[in-house]
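Ticket reopened. Same input as before:
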Amino acid sequence: MLTDFRHQVIVNEFRDALGAENVSVRPVDLYAYSMDYYLAPQIWADRGLKPCQPDIVVHPGSTAEVSRVLKIASRHRLPVIPYGGGSGSQGGTTPLYGGVVVDVKRMDRILRIDEESLTVTAQPGINGQRLEWALNRRGYTLAHYPASVYGATLGGYVAARGSGTLSTKYGKAEDMVLSLEVVLPSGEIIRTLPVPNHACGPSLLQLFVGSEGTLGVITEVTIRIEPMPEARRFNAYLFEDIRAGLEAGRRIMTRRLRPCTLRLYDDNSSERIVKRVLGLDVRGCYMVVGADGDADSAERTLQRMAAICTDQGGRELGPELGEHWWRHRYDFYFPPHNLMLPEMSGTVETTTTYDKIYGIYRAKKEAIEEGFKEFGARYIAHFSHWFPWGVMIYDRFIIPKPPQDPQEALQLHTMIWAKAARTSLACGGVLNDHHGIGFKLGWLMPEQYGPAFAVLQAIKDALDPQGIMNPGKFGFARRV
Amino acid sequence: MFLSEAERRETLWACRFCMMCHVADRVAAVLRRESYTPRGRANVLWALEKGMLAWDAEAADLVYTAVNDGLLERWCVGNYPYEELIVDARARFFQKGAVPEEIRRRVEAIHAGREAGPAPAEILRAAGVATQPGSPWVLFAGCNARRRSPQSLIHLGQLFNAAGIPFQVLEDEPCCGWTLYQLGDFEGAGAFSRRIADRLRRAGARDVIVIDADCLRMFTTRTVRFGGEVSGITFRHAVEILAEWLRGERLAVRRPIPGPVTYHDPCALARYRVTIDPPRRILQRIVEGELREMEAGGPASPCCGAGGMLAEYKPEVAQELAAWRLREAAETGARLLATACTRCDGMFRSAREADSSLPAPEVANLIDLVALAVAPA
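Engineering reply: fixed in the latest deploy. New output:
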């Protein structure tokens, strides 16, 4: 924390750089920026304890202003925490060591829609759904529909390698982005190459994609857009056994069909999510499949998927139960359906190749349900983002009645996460597929990467020698 | 308090852990700050309860910088009464004497009668509109219309005359208490509710026709809960009765209004009363040309900026919301933006005064448009 005098001096510099109205030290603002969608600070606050707070919040309106902010922060070795929609669940914006939160939501303009190349260039603070609406009005779509779309920002999509309900066809954020403008910790403004595919050395673009504010602040994003599809259709199936559903999904993907949606819920998840939220009375493993594009090709894809699913023992539930899922796909994340306190929950998802996915599912289910039996732990999972080589498992733990004592609650939270993450790593998975790393999983990064982590640390040190950017995240050594 | 303690706690819980309505919240979109999102406010309210923050004017600022338009409750899958949570929080700040100075002065002015504007009887007398004391029909203007849109009151009076319906106004029309309720002065709102209910009963009111949509919401959903006895009295908005009169040929259109026209649904009518069709039926009768709907209309219509007393507390924010809506109206290509609430008219006009570069269309109240359309050629 800053001393009063130094704090005042730095605040005055920010006011000079951005205008007083764009700098806040009001206690209510500092408190509001102490939390995003990450559970641990919420546990803390829920028990009446103040979470980690920033010292200052700033609201730059341009790349030049972000540059000024970083120059001041760099000069004072002040921690910098970039903040978009506050939709992250990994503690990516938790101001562990105080410092300045840089909220980019004032930078929310669409700068250019290139209708020849089908790209949009926009500032990072634009809300995901507002961007989508603006594109829809012109006949386009970003085709990126994460559960957080109503709160998240474009910058957050890219900074955390997000994915959405159509990612199986259209890719994750890292597949969609063409180029970035980034302000480095020194305040210098750089641009990555104008296109993502080239033979000009390693990808500077992909260095910043997924960097979660640890290497700089993303200030402009150029990303692919799609024409609105002529048709988007769905169907639903019920499998008695999760393995049969997984095999159906694998066959769909390895036969190189291109579903826009392919989502398989295990029996627990079908009960907890599909039945309770959607009101679909299903027993077994519910799968929704979707195809889009021109009407004929969407229909053909659906028919080919139907053949595969029924061949694997899936019972067709009919298009209405698929369409119903699509219409209500965000309902799961609204209260009272979202998994929130007083239950303790976490999405411990991972991704792996097809040969390992069932093993991971079994191992994690056992690790959580058996390992934390005394807390009544439940494990639910669905498989929602499919690749040509494998699939991500969106699995979650639920502790119905976590300890009231904040230290005990936080300890349990950390223990479950560690157990789940290490099980993923031991079975050939990774720490995370599309929620990011943040603070929550940062401490496990050296374990995941092994000796290769030194490469990441060296890159961090080269770009941010003082370690001001989002300290405490990614497992990077703390410098400030 | 209006929410039960269980409802309040559940709503606070829901909003603390959710950001799914952020895209629907235009105040948050204009201010672009976490503190002014529904989640930000809920987190701060929680911190206040837990003693982590102080009940002061800075904290109160967050809850007074809101339009309370009901749109977020509608957007929410769980339909949590976020608006009531905010009004409840305002009441708590008010009780603790921790409201911003502007709010305190405003409440004082209302209690002192400085916000009421000229008496409706005086306005109508000066305009030569005939009233009939003792009539069961009461025209209720409301403070806002008396001060800011007396022409709408006059026009409605003339339309009553033209329709051959004798009516009265309350000689010293008391405030309905809506503003006090919104500002968190529940004690004052209760006293005002009981007073207006008493005056209406003593006047022999049976059908009360209200100009201001917020006053109507007060009468139909709040007055009784604040202790005002209004059983046997029917409250309707002016557009509801005008739509009937136009359909039933009590009023004949002589000079159609040139279109195309678009219509902004006031929150209090479209969301709380679900008065969606009558204003459109009126426009279909009186406008020569197309009625062009805005992208977000009916119950999904966003606030013009005047909701929640934001126009008085943070006029610059309210004007941005109004400008946003004006741009949406302009996108329809309409030459005229019709509204059914004098607060909305005033809000749009104020935004245009603040920024003359805002696009057409011209703003008009439906009452005024009907008066124009039925006036002798």
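Chain B is about 50% helix and 5% strand. The first helix of chain B runs from residue 5 to 16. Please confirm and we'll close it.
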